[in-house]
Amino acid sequence: MTAEPTPPLRFAYDASQQVDPLGDIEEEAKQGTKHNRAKVGSGRPSSLLYTYGPGAIMDLPQFTVMPCGLDEWDRIWRRRDGIPEIHAPRLRDAVRMLLRSPDVQLRPFPWQPKKASLSVEGSDLGVPARVFPQWLRCTGCDMLGGLAQFQYRNTHPYRTDLATFEHEKCPGRRATTARGGKRSRSARAARRSAVPARYLLACPDGHVDEFPYEVWVHRGRSCSEAEFPALKMVDHTSGWVAAATVECASCGLRRPMNEAQGEVGRTKLPRCRGRHPHLDAFDPGGCRAQTYLMLIGASNLWFPATQSVIVMPESAEERAGDRADQIRRVLGERLAKYRDDPEILRDVLRGKQGIAFDVDELSDEELRESVDAALQPETSAEDQEKRIREWDPVDLLVPEWRYLQYEPIGQHHTDDASGLVLSPRERGEDLPASISQVLAVESLRKVNALLGFTRIDDMDRVGDLPQRLVPLTRTRPEWTVATEDRGEGIFLKLDEPTVAAWEERVRDSKLWRAHRKSHTRNFYRRFSETAARVDPETRLKAPRYWLVHTLAHVLIREMAMTCGYNAASLSERIYAWPEDEGRDPAAGLLVCTTASDSDGTLGGLVQLSEPDRLERVLNAALRRATRCPSDPICAMRTPQDPEDFLHGAACHCCAMASETSCERANRFLDRRFLINLPGSDLGFFPSPE
Description:
This is MrfA-like Zn-binding domain-containing protein. The chain is an alpha+beta fold.
């Protein structure tokens, strides 16, 4: 193997501005001084992955921060002798392909539990972040200024919520009051806290920047009275409308922020500069796209691109591939040197960090095959791009579907490597005949990985618009952040011949034709350029998906009443696709609950898989699905031109679920596919008694 040259920086970056909040920790240790480790807040791993990841804006009690790119995290991890990794080869291989980097590993967040509330374990670990935006507004006098014009206070080591920026000599608003016909003015200076100025600029290619308040209020010119003008942001409320106005106290110019809103307002905004604050870098070629006015709390400012798997027992081929990957990473260039000498290979690999298998248990032939696999050349760039374009997220679900169909060997069948524990369940006499298999998933391990993010618009798949997926690093990544959750669940499989016959009937229906046309309208009206490159028919879920998805939702609502978990803690994993090349048809679902600790394995959900309990839950869910407080409007909802919604007889009163539960944002739902409703005979299940 030949050494690969270090790839050049992808972004314009000033290394002197690197974030290293703990850089002085060694020097302070020598001097015996103590220091508050600059932590300003905390978050759960799930929120840091799906809501406040690198490039997002996290709202802290007193100000906002943006978690840095993974380059800055490396300096945190270097404070440990060993860096933990999350073992999920199937997900890891998919992430490597999508990120175009052959050595990407999955790592958890840099965190360590404390033995006691006042102990210091893990004080030198954490997610580095930058204050963003760095324009603040004083709450006492409305002064609008940069970060340097305010003082930072964070003196309490155990009260990060008290960290704040303050205007040290705030004169107040100098409001005049009438006293005996005379007007007096208060000019008492005091310390008052500052809050983030709430406006930003963003573009569809994932850049975000500070709003240029000084340029805005002076309409692109310089202030006529001062080189560094004094700015204010004043809020006004008129009737039901609240608006802000930027004022220049030096020259007296004023300009309301509502001029920047809407399509007309966009023409008054500057072009994008190509800035990525989380990387502290700019795109070398710039951007020049049209910018959008954004608020720091806008929901479309950050969309994570994630993939997840439920870890299943590895096949022989997967184990061999994983061994080859470990050997390649540990030996690197020395691999070809020791290729033909198994004994030296064993001596070199034995006890090496990163080798998670027993080298001595492999025969010479197995070891040689692993080395040969590790020496295989990388996929060419052309083939790699083709794989990404053709890749379907369903590929991650296929191994799970195949394994869950196998009947477990007895109760509590355990696989120690994956953490999966399965128990078969008998079908109750009153369970619908179209449900052919029930499994109690007593324990499972789910791994979630972050690939990047987009702004303004979410993409269906990572490969749709590669230039819009914002990277997490400045160079080709060597790792990405992931979370590992434990949980339990119930797996249901629908009878395939029954589903196939029902699906043929649905495809010829007027209702399905209406859904197809609505999906096409929705796809082409999307803001994203995805619609110009992708055939919408390839992204429309098959009728069986609508069926299984709606069943999962009504089950989640019903199970939440008896299992001990709230509805937002339950989630779905849908296995529903027609037969395709190299892919058997699927029609099943897994309702599960997962958490980063033991809260996801309390057993309340698994108990509902017992025959008599599952019968009651399922039949009760189907009965509830026949009625909705919004009927008959909900039961007859069918999209007609120009409508483009992606659901039918479903609403928040009957079938929709919380964002944490649904994998499709409450799209592709229709109770008429689940059970017969007035005016429709397309129900898969018979009408409950």
